Amino acid sequence: MTVSQTIRAAALELGFSACGIARYRRLDEQASYLERWLRAGKHAGMEYMARHVGERLDPALLLPGVRSVIVCLAAYGQDAVLSPGTPRIASYAWGKDYHFVLKGLLGRLLEKLQEKIPGASGRAFVDSAPVLERRWAVEAGLGWIGRSSLLIHPRLGSRTFVGVLLTDAVLDCDEPYRENGCGSCRRCISACPAGAIGGDGTVDARRCLSYHTIENRGTIPPQIAEVLGNRLFGCETCQEACPHNSGVVPALSPLFAPVGGLPDVRAQEWLAMGSGEFRRRFAQTPLSRCGLRKLKETVRLIVADVGLPEKGPEKGICDL
Ligand code: SF4
Ligand code: SF4
User: Fold this and answer.
1) Residues with Cβ within 6 A of ligand 1?
2) All residues at 6 or more sequence positions from 88 whose CB lies less than 8 Å from its CB, including other chains
């Protein structure tokens, strides 16, 4: 077995759903795309997106001497039956915060690499540093970036977390993924309730319900509240619309098993919750980054808009 084969097998043993390896290069061709997106203000209040553009284009600024980029995907698609009156939480947030889970796994993968190549150095990134993770996933042969701007793996669909391990080890690499499986499909664009997905496949965060329910630290603007529906944390409408997610069997990975009674937490329960209970139930989940006060504000908008539904149980938002 080559070192690359050992690493790919080790990644699957650790619980990742797929692993590919890309050869290091500068991603200079991404510069104009990034610049246009930023200049148009589509990053909304995510000022960090405008910083460290150099590092985004060249990971050698994050790990000097980098030669290979190991990319791992972890599928999180799950299914659930919700009680009436349950505001929806995007399925990625039902379990432990993926940042910590994936970073731990990538650390163990680096140890495996160092068993094979003593002295190899590496640095792990999970959606928290200036790394173009989805672009590296394409480079590593794991899928394409769809019009929804999400990475789509041909077998796993779009509900995957992406972790990147930069290393100075020279590894056999995969070929970049060259097809674009979107073809003439535009379902995500039509399905988006906020018109956030442009024809060019960029998402305007200023309109996106995921941004407003998770990242926006201010008040959700009225024109966004009008199309909020019962989305409390995140929005998966573009993913539900994507044909590459239908037929994907939801696999409840123990890595991301729901905690704290998620996702079946009703509106009344949120509104009555105290900070101690919130911490106890959700401190380990992505919800903690958003905070109870913001969640309650959003629940109030939901109740004002759609009320508290009285019909029977409904399928969860990630009904695949
Ligand atoms: S997450 Fe929701 S609002 Fe954002 S682009 Fe997708 S469908 Fe539109
Ligand atoms: S819904 Fe269609 S256009 Fe959008 S990402 Fe999926 S395949 Fe591509």
Assistant:
1) 192, 194, 196-197, 203, 208-210, 235, 237-238
2) 82, 229, 230, 231, 232, 233, 263, 316, 317
